[in-house]
Amino acid sequence: MAKSTLEEAMTAVSAIWGPLTTELVEASRLHIEALAKASPSEPWLADLHRDQPASRELYRDPVHRFVLLAHVEKTGFYRAPHDHGRGWVVYAVQQGESEMGTYGRTNGFGGRVQLVKRNATLVKPGQVQVYLPGDIHDTLCVTGPALLFRFTERDLKKEDLVEHKITRYVQRDGFWTAGAP
C-alpha cells in the first residue's frame, strides 16, 4: 500500500535528522512544502479540511522528538510577535493566506527592549517560511479559513510552559516590547 504524503515526509525527515545545518533546514523545508502541496483527497488532509481544528498534532517523532502540527485559522486571527526559544520552525500554508512578519530586537529609549518590524511576507498555498532559533515573527490570517502546518524541531509547549524559553512580545505605548515571563 502506498504511503501518504504525510507518512513519506515524516519518514524522510526522520532519516536525515541531525544537528541544525543549512542542509537539514532545506531538506525539512522541502518535505513540509510537499505537505502543503498534497492532494486534499488524501484521507489525513481531507479530515483536516472537514474538521478544521484550531490545533491538531499530526506527528511526533519518537526518536528525534520533532513535532508537526496543523492549525486552522479564521480571517483576522493574529499571533503577536514571538520567537521559538532554542527551536527552529517551518510554517507551510496549505489553504488560505497568512502574512508573516519578521522583527529585529533592539534597545529603545531608556534601554527598554523594543521590536522593529523588518518586513512582511504573504504566504500563499504551497509556500513555506523558515524561522531559526532567535528569529522573531508574527502571523496574521489574511484569507481564511487558512490551513497551516507548523513543523518544530522540538516540543514548543515544553519550551514555553515548562522551561520558559520562548519570548512573547506585547504592545506598550505603541511599541512591541518583551512581555512578562
Properties at a glance:
alpha+beta, 4 helices, 181 residues, 42% strand, seven-stranded antiparallel beta sheet, Jelly Rolls
What does this structure look like?
The chain has about 180 residues and is an alpha+beta fold. The protein has a single domain, classed as Sandwich (Jelly Rolls). Helices cover about 25% and strands about 40% of the residues. Strands 1, 2, 3, 4, 5, 6 and 7 form a 7-stranded antiparallel beta sheet that branches. The longest helix is centred in the first third of the chain and has 15 residues, at about 20-35. The protein is globular and about 65 Å long.
Secondary-structure map:
Layout: H1 5-16, H2 22-36, H3 43-51, E1 56-60, E2 67-73, E3 78-82, E4 89-107, E5 113-123, E6 128-131, E7 136-152, H4 156-162, E8 169-172, E9 175-178
Short summary of the structure?
This protein is an alpha+beta fold. It has helices spanning 5-16, 22-36, 43-51, 156-162; strands at residues 56-60, 67-73, 78-82, 89-107, 113-123, 128-131, 136-152, 169-172, 175-178. The strands form 2 sheets. Strands 1, 2, 3, 4, 5, 6 and 7 form a 7-stranded antiparallel β-sheet that branches.
Would you tell me which CATH topology applies?
A: Jelly Rolls
- Please give the count of helices: 4
Terminal Cα separation, in Å?
Answer: 48 Å
How many structural domains can be distinguished in the coordinates? 1
Residue share in helix: 10-25%
Basic shape: globular
Largest sheet: 7 strands, antiparallel
CATH class: Mainly Beta
Structural class: alpha+beta
What are the secondary-structure elements, in order, as H or E?
HHHEEEEEEEHEE
Q: CATH homologous superfamily?
A: Jelly Rolls
Radius of gyration: 17 Å
Average pLDDT over all residues: 92
Q: Detail the poorly predicted runs.
A: none
Strand tally: 9
> Would you identify the CATH architecture?
Sandwich
Q: What is the strand content?
A: 35-45%
